[in-house]
């Protein structure tokens, strides 16, 4: 086996190894750990126990740092934009026959005219849809009771990895009895759905193609 063939096989092996890599964690969407609670006092037999972490009438809805909350992804957006532009300009200039020493030469005359026209039109449409569920954690409880949440779902497949990341602010009253909330009720949401690996790379435009369609190209 010559050196060139060995190098090719070694490179192919590295590529195969890269394709089997586990999904990577994003520290910006890391789960929050529960806050250490003080040891509750000894119960006195009453229904209401002051100082205990959960009262008798509480349900399992998220309300503290570290609690879990399931988000239903029901995102669906669409947009359309149409633009048309038209401009016309016509100009004409005529220079009369001048008098030279009292004489008017027949060939000393000139005229100019120009016409400019521009027509342009554009049409842009975009539609996106995202559905599913992702369970996140409460990372902070704000003074008004609203909760900041964040979380990430990592899915490893044989041709790469897929990631669903979400963060935002949730009102307690928007959480239903099953401890779920629709993504449309999240304030200041950040929802990311990305992937890596060969399939994702095959759908990306190369740097040379991006250069030729860039704004710096004169044609």
Q: Briefly, what is this?
A:
The model has no long low-confidence stretch (mean pLDDT 75).
Description:
This protein is mainly beta and 219 residues long. It has a domain at 14-32 and 56-77 and 126-209. It is built from three helices and six strands. A hairpin with a 5-residue loop joins strand 2 and strand 3. The two termini are 49 Å apart.
Query: What is the CA–CA distance across the termini?
Result: 49 Å
Main sheet characteristics: 6 strands, mixed
Spell the H/E element sequence: HEEEEEEHH
Mean pLDDT metric: 75
Number of helices: 3
DSSP strand (E) fraction?
Answer: 35-45%
Question: What structural class do the secondary elements suggest?
Answer: mainly beta
Number of separate strands: 6
* Shape label: elongated
| Strand line-up of the largest beta sheet | 5-1-2-3-4-6
Roughly how many Å is the radius of gyration? 34 Å
| Poorly predicted segments | none
State the share of residues found in helices, binned by percent: 10-25%
Secondary-structure topology with pairs:
Blueprint (H helix, E strand, L loop, with lengths): L2 H17 L48 E28 L14 E32 L5 E11 L2 E11 L9 E3 L4 E10 L1 H5 L4 H6 L7
Question: Keyphrases for this structure?
Answer:
219 residues, mainly beta, 3 helices, 6 strands, 13% helix
